[in-house]
């Protein structure tokens, strides 16, 4: 994301749904200042602790909603959002807000899990993600992201759904979500009965009594 942004060092950056701040902290040495925003105060509290521990001085913190950014028009040179947008209920509102708070010529950088351009695979993907974590909304197809971002008034400059993946194991994936044994059982059945095109798309295999798989990540650079 940093290399795609090509920062010059004088930018003001907003990181939406920052979590504990890892994307914000990655950009901090490369821009003038960063606002790290999340809807969950506890996440912001943890991010502040990490920032103090790493002596990062140019990051400030804000509690706020992605669909209603608490900032004036034309405020930021760069807006980032990493591995979070699949939880947003109002994705159209979010993109409209990003466009609003960016300065003319400002850059929006998005990374999120996605499916290949196949609706059957996409339905399977979203079904198991929602079963594991009810806060999941949608892993959008790359083409859907392109259409929604362009409709918001930003122009796509780069998009890549083959560059990166996130690699997971079933045991960790279900543990971090706090899945019940019943849900784990349902998910196991879905993985083991998945059609071949789904298994190939997500690199599903079993080894050492665990299921391993990966989600593709879509990376997008757009400009206002």
Give the structure's gist in a few sentences:
This protein has a domain at 2-117 and 135-165 and 216-223: Rossmann fold, CATH 3.40.50. It has nine helices and eight strands. It has helices at residues 2-5, 22-27, 41-53, 91-101, 119-132, 142-151, 170-176, 181-192, 196-201, and strands at residues 12-16, 33-38, 59-63, 76-82, 102-113, 155-169, 205-207, 210-223.
Write the layout of secondary structure elements.
Layout: H1 2-5, E1 12-16, H2 22-27, E2 33-38, H3 41-53, E3 59-63, E4 76-82, H4 91-101, E5 102-113, H5 119-132, H6 142-151, E6 155-169, H7 170-176, H8 181-192, H9 196-201, E7 205-207, E8 210-223
Parallel strand pairs: 1-2, 1-4, 2-3, 4-5
Antiparallel strand pairs: 5-8, 6-8, 7-8
Question: If you had to describe this structure to a student in words, what would you say it looks like?
Answer:
- The protein is an alpha/beta fold.
- The chain has a domain of about 160 residues: 3-Layer(aba) Sandwich (Rossmann fold), CATH 3.40.50.
- The protein is about 35% helix and about 30% strand.
- The chain is built from 9 helices and 8 strands.
- Strands 1, 2, 3, 4, 5, 6, 7 and 8 form an 8-stranded mixed sheet that branches.
- The longest helix has 14 residues.
- It is globular and about 50 Å long.
- The chain starts with a helix and ends with a strand.
